[in-house]
């Protein structure tokens, strides 16, 4: 059987993506109403913490270039039981980041999200070239 690398990757990523999104579960209305979102965050505070979190996850943190989306807002990320992640609540900052890859060239802007609670980045993700954004954190 002659399979290209792209086909193999697609055949592996698609089922994993479907599996992970199928296993995510939204919090109940009771959980949402009782949730602790942490202290209110000013837009500057959200941006600074999001940039620091995302930059520190890159191969070359000093090369990070940012574009910011909407202002920081109250929200949550669903639980992902297969990854051992419960639903988390807080303030979400979205945007895009461009950073240098292993070859020293910029890889292009990729979407990111950071969820913060009481001034701490609880969970974040940077989308890959296919738009898949696997969370990192607790």
Secondary structure topology:
Elements: H1 5-23, H2 29-34, H3 43-56, E1 65-68, E2 73-77, E3 88-98, E4 110-117, E5 120-126, E6 136-137
Antiparallel strand pairs: 1-3, 2-3, 3-4, 4-5, 5-6
Quick structural summary:
This protein has 3 helices and 6 strands; from the N terminus they run H-H-H-E-E-E-E-E-E. It has helices at residues 5-23, 29-34, 43-56; strands at residues 65-68, 73-77, 88-98, 110-117, 120-126, 136-137. A hairpin with a 2-residue loop joins strand 4 (110-117) and strand 5 (120-126).
What would you note in describing this structure?
The protein is of the alpha+beta class. 28% of the residues lie in helices and 27% in strands. The chain is built from 3 helices and 6 strands, in the order αααββββββ. The protein has helices at 5-23, 29-34, 43-56; strands spanning 65-68, 73-77, 88-98, 110-117, 120-126, 136-137. Strands 1, 2, 3, 4, 5 and 6 form a 6-stranded antiparallel beta sheet that branches. The protein is globular, with a radius of gyration of 17 Å.
Q: Tally the helices: what do you get?
A: 3
Structural class: alpha+beta
Q: What is the strand tally?
A: 6
In quaternary terms, these chains amount to: single chain
Uncertain segments are none
Task: Give the overall average pLDDT.
Answer: 83
Number of discrete domains: 1
């Amino acid at each position: 059987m002659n399979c290209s690398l792209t086909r193999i990757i697609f055949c592996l990523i698609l089922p994993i993506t479907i599996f992970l999104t199928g296993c995510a579960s939204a919090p109940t209305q009771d959980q949402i109403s009782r949730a602790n979102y942490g202290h209110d965050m000013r837009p500057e505070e959200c941006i600074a913490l999001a940039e620091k979190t995302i930059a520190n996850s890159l191969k070359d943190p000093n090369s990070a270039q940012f574009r910011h989306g909407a202002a920081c807002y109250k929200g949550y990320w669903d639980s992902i039981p297969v990854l051992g992640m419960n639903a988390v609540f807080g303030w979400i900052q979205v945007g895009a980041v461009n950073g240098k890859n292993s070859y020293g060239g910029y890889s292009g802007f990729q979407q990111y999200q950071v969820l913060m609670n009481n001034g701490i980045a609880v969970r974040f993700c940077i989308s890959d070239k296919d738009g898949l954004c696997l969370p990192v954190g607790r």
